[in-house]
Amino acid sequence: MIGSIPLSDVLLVSGALFSIGVAGALLRRNAIQIFLSIELMMNAANLALLGYGAALGTHQGQIIVFFVIAIAAAEAAVGLAIFVALFRHTETIDVNKINLLKW
Amino acid sequence: MERLFFDAAALLAILFAGLMVVGRDPVKSVLSLVVSFFALAACYVLLLAPLIAVLQVIVYAGAILVLFLFVLMLLNVGREQPDGARRPIQTVLGSLAVVVFAGLLLGMLRATGTRIPILTEAVGPEGLADPAALARLLFSDYLLHFEAVSVLLLAALVGAFVLARREEAP
Fold first, then answer.
1. CA-nearest residue of chain B to A85?
2. Which residue from A5, A57, A70 is facing B149, i.e. has the nearest CB?
3. Cα nearest neighbour of A11 on chain B
4. Cβ proximity of A22 and B102 under 8 Å
5. What is the interface pTM, i.e. ipTM, of the complex?
6. What is the pLDDT along chain A (103 residues), one digit of tens a residue?
């Protein structure tokens, strides 16, 4: 319990958000939307970390989330740069049309 | 009362996350995710992490998603066309995988959420929500990790610059 919030609520919301992220990453074809789904999955994991940290009464959860946010920023910068470079070569970011490495 | 607010904010987050996945227009997807992340920030406040909530709004909703919008405008990506490039078997298998995964994950979380160990040095709610205590920990016990992240951010900056740079003719 965190205040009057049961931990099971937090975990349920986190699991639901993560599942929505997995659905987006598997079913979308636009690379940007796949990337957005990955960001959503990271946020779901952050929510679970904060829930456990608050329920256990420790700062560790918040510390890990702090680092996750910093790494997500780095990842977004590099990923979007890759998309820009990819678009310049292939004129598309549809992942079904980018099949240079597929035999 | 807190539970009511948490559940309302969480429902909002889940709703807009669903809209993000369903929508075919990437710009609308990004904007839905902004709303979802704002709702998540409200959840973070209720989970006694106000500093993380502020970082969520500034870094995630502010910086990262605006970067996505910039790239979308730069690339001028249109709506996803429902053409025949995708075989239906892909969609069916993908949906099946999502359903199985969601069932497993939610079942597992339901099973683990009830057992919580008792920590000896547990911090009270006021201590948890105190940004000064978090900062003290970050700059003492986790100083090495903090510096490693700063080097990582520099590497990402240089990497992004090199990747997105226009190739010059030799």
1. B164
2. A70
3. B109
4. yes
5. 0.91
6. 677 788 888 899 999 999 999 999 998 888 899 999 999 999 999 999 999 888 888 888 999 999 999 999 999 999 999 998 888 888 888 887 887 777 6
The torsion angles phi and psi of B57, rounded to 5 degrees, stand at -70, -45
Does the global pTM surpass 0.95?
A: no
Q: Does B2 touch chain A (CB under 8 A)?
A: yes
For the domain bounded by A7-90, which CATH number is listed? 1.10.287.3510
In angstroms, the CA A98 to CA A88 distance is 13
B151 at the A interface (CB within 8 A)?
A: no
Residue A24: closest CA among A38, A43, A45: A38
CB-CB neighbors (< 8 A) of A37 in chain B: 20-21
Which of B13, B59, B75 lies closest to A17 in CB terms?
B13
Sequence ranges of the domains in chain A:
7-90
Q: Where are the beta strands (DSSP E) in chain B?
A: none
Sign, Cα dihedral of B85, B90, B92, B97:
negative
